[in-house]
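Person: I keep going back and forth on a fold encoding question. Show me how you would write down a chain together with its backbone fold. Please set it down just below, with no commentary around it:
Helper:
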Amino acid sequence: NSFVTTRVLREETWRAAAYRAVEDDLHISEDDLEEALVPEANEDNMCHSVTEGKTVSSSFPGIKSKYRTHMVSWKIKEDKVHVFQSCGLPLNLEKRESNPFKCDFTI
């Protein structure tokens, strides 16, 4: 298992990058995603955190690079879970508790 990941493009917000990743990887449109998310998903401090670090670049061995990781955690409205069924939702509670960050799925 891994997370849905993407690079934030120049002049792109973290939210736009997250929507793009969901559409590209999970084939869920931005409109369907916005409709499925709980209202708190629009509050950055409720769904988004950033960690920064420096490490040797995987693309350019030997060169130290600064990385910024955006962790986005969105809750889905109970009546919209069907939008995500093709992605493996919902999982049972026991499985959810064992997943990273208690997520229903990781892609």
Remarks:
- The first helix runs from residue 14 to 26.
- The chain has four helices and two strands.
- The mean pLDDT is 85.
- The radius of gyration is 15 Å.
